[in-house]
Specification:
Elements lengths: L6 H19 L4 H11 L11 H15 L16 E3 L1 H4 L7 E3 L10 H5 L5 E3 L4 E3 L9 H5 L5 E3 L3 H5 L5 E3 L5 E3 L9 H5 L5 E3 L3 H9 L4 E5 L12 H10 L4 E4 H22 L3 E2 L4 H10 L1 H6 L7 H12 L4 E6 L3 H5 L9 E4 H10 L17 H4 L6 H12 L7 E5 L1 H12 L7 E5 L15 H11 L8 H8 L11
Parallel strand pairs: 9-10, 9-12, 11-15, 12-13, 14-15
Antiparallel strand pairs: 1-8, 2-5, 3-4, 6-7
Helix pairs in contact: 1-3, 1-9, 1-16, 2-3, 11-14, 11-18, 11-21, 12-19
Length: 486
Amino acid sequence: MGLFKHDARVIKFDVLRKAADLAYAGELTEEKMNAYYKDLIPGTKANYRCCVYKEREVLRQRGRLVRGLMANDVEKNNPKQIVQVIEAACDGCTIKKVLVTDNCRKCMAKSCQASCKFDAMKMGSDKAYIDYDKCKSCGACVKACPFNAIVQSERPCVRSCPVNAISMDENDLCVINEENCISCGACQAGCPFGAIEDISWVVPVCELLRMNTPCIAIVAPSIQGQFENATFAQIKQGIKMLGFDKVYEAAIGADAIAYYEHEELMDHIEKKIPMTTSCCPAFVNMAKLHFPKIYEENVSTMVSPMMAIARKLKQDYPKHGIVFIGPCVAKKQEAMESFTAVDYVLTFEELAAMMIAKHIHCEELEAAEEEVASVFGRNFAQGGGVSKAVAQAASEKEKPAINAVYADGCMECKKQLMLMKAGKFTGDILEGMSCVGGCINGPGAFETSIKAKARMNKENLSAQKKTIKSVVEEFNFENVHLHREK
């Protein structure tokens, strides 16, 4: 679903744009943001919630996250709590897990009542009903009903979480267990009320650029196709116009990782220990938090492409700030790891808000087309692209072919990690991507993956003959430490 087809995301975008506008002008205050919320929701007629006051409160909490503050007026800052719940927005989703529908015939068998061990199923004048004070949501009545009149459903956030990090509190509000959360953003993308959001660094980035602080932007390849018909070169030119000194492709780092990761893979194959990729931070988080032995023994020690190019740039430009721009929420968490070389992370929607605040229209800009990264590095953004790049590196080094398995989305990642834990994984390397289809479907993107993929495939035709080795040699990663601490 595109940004402008989801009302909650449109509202979030409005708040982002206003915050960016005020931050660039050096005029961002809570008072001005509160006044803007009244402009967004004038009068007394509510559009989505019980009243305009509730809607403005939701906006105020969105504004806190946009300004880098904790939601729900929490004062104590927890910088690693990237994904947060806006309680005022969540209470519109207080559905019951087990529900009797109008299909109930109040039949004579009363199978639902007989199956309930907690005396929660009652008979009303027209149909059965549930005493929720006694109901344990076991689902026995659902299976027993001959009319399929009782349904069992999960809330979207719970259903979307691959690691069971979401539960409900005593008020039926969503609670995220930060100890289990992998920051994949699946719950954020799945919530139809926009009640789960990521904390933003758009304000400090705008303020740094306003003060002419030298900054370099690293942009993920999945940005192709995000800005209407703008080419990659035009988008990079637009980013420079925001105040960045230089713009580099994260795909350059991807080429370096593919080239050097192959060596680590060969060592794993020799020892008959399967290896996993390490470019997707949510996938790495899943292994680290929920499969610690696999994290220690099987996950590649290579850093992500973002971190690889960032470390190279920190060597070359030690006085510059480094800002990564991509579709990923988990990158914000990765940027706070002890081994980071990245100062801030922005999503594509945050970048778009900055563009609009500065009245930059990428498709109207003049920009020279250039070939920088290989098509293999750029295709890290698409599902299966990482393992294909590692295979290409093997081919360029005249090494044997590899057997790669691609896990498409968090649920499949979890399945393959469980197989690896049980010793039943059949490949040499597991490519894990937390977003189905790859980074082009990241929660911070705002265009459909179909359009993004079409734009990528079209623009990357000119780079088809460029090798991974040539990119690595051109940018000279020999003295760059590309491994993370375990």
